[in-house]
Design goal:
Elements lengths: L2 H20 L5 H27 L4 H24 L5 H23 L9 H26 L8 H7 L2 H23 L1 H15 L6
């Protein structure tokens, strides 16, 4: 397996690890979870850099890399949903969008057909990651200081102004907007995939 693909697999291995440590007490487990997530994030950037610089782009890598990205992000939002920091409907929409587009991209790659991408989606990923890091920091602050003020009034102000919820609303809306854009630009792949599924799962020789 090429080195970039090993990094992708490492990212998939690290994903359940940061999720596990995020659920553990005492608080230093949360710091460890954040560190593991940061390491997984670095592999996301570095495997792409290595693949482009040294010509290590492979077919399996084109399938695995976006899947590993979506798995890492979806698990992170899923854990924060379970912990009560993200609303379930936001998590569900983000996951459905991301895996629909990943499936559509994999289908196009499997048929060796071009898949239209957009730089707009890179901003989506940036803000998803930004939101996850904000959630990590917010969770650590809440669990470290509890009812204490850090700094005076900070925790209360964040909660009163619903800053985390507004951030997640923005991320959810941006995620859906890019999903609609992807589906529209690649609607021919979506139609072809729907026909293929129909032929597989709906018998045509029934009398």
């Amino acid at each position: 397996m090429a080195s970039p693909n090993r990094l992708t697999v490492l990212r998939m291995v690290l994903t359940p690890l940061f999720a596990y440590f995020l659920t553990r007490d005492p608080i230093y487990y949360k710091y460890f979870s954040l560190s593991v997530f940061f390491l997984a994030s670095i592999t996301d950037w570095y495997d792409g850099y290595v693949a482009r610089k040294y010509g290590g782009i492979t077919v399996i890598g084109k399938h695995l890399d976006p899947l590993a990205d979506k798995l890492m992000i979806s698990v992170a939002f899923g854990m924060f949903t379970w912990l009560g920091y993200v609303k379930f409907w936001m998590f569900a929409l983000i996951v459905l969008r991301d895996f629909l587009i990943t499936g559509l991209r994999s289908y196009a790659l499997f048929l060796n057909k071009p898949f239209t991408t957009t730089s707009f989606a890179k901003w989506k990923t940036f803000f998803q990651m930004f939101a996850i890091y904000c959630l990590f920091v917010w969770l650590i602050i809440k669990e470290t200081y509890g009812g204490q003020d850090f700094p005076p009034g900070f925790i209360q102000d964040v909660e009163n102004w619903n800053l985390i919820e507004y951030l997640m609303l923005f991320v959810t809306a941006l995620t859906l907007a890019t999903g609609v854009s992807y589906v529209y630009d690649n609607r021919h792949h979506l139609k072809s995939m729907a026909v293929a599924f129909y032929r597989v799962f709906v018998p045509t020789n029934v009398r």
